[in-house]
Amino acid sequence: QVQLLESGGGLVQPGGSLRLSCAASGIIFSTSAVGWYRQAPGKQREAVAVITIGGSTNYINSVKGRFTISRDNVKNTVYLQMNSLKPEDTAVYYCQTKTYWGKGTLVTVSS
Description:
This protein has strands at residues 3-7, 10-12, 18-25, 34-39, 46-51, 57-59, 67-72, 77-82, 91-97, 100-101, 105-109. By secondary structure, the chain is mostly beta strands. The strands form 2 sheets. Strands 2, 4, 5, 6, 9, 10 and 11 form a 7-stranded mixed sheet that branches. A 4-stranded antiparallel sheet has the order 1-3-8-7, with no helix packed on it. 28% of the residues are buried.
């Protein structure tokens, strides 16, 4: 049974940082691309960042230079380091690989 478990969300002030983690069981992250998505209230879910099997990364323009996706093959975990957070980054963040999704972790950026 495949499970993806996100953690690390919370309330942070604008300009602050958070690191999200996505731990996998029942599947090996290094065998497929892994993405972080987010869904803000009243908006559609959007892809934020992806890391490929080979370790290449891609980001949406709005987070380039602020977010970094990475993978720890030993821990079978993918991370999303988020710096210089803005109120518009507020959303539920999900990790995804193949057809599997986690349940999400809420990030709230507010003063």
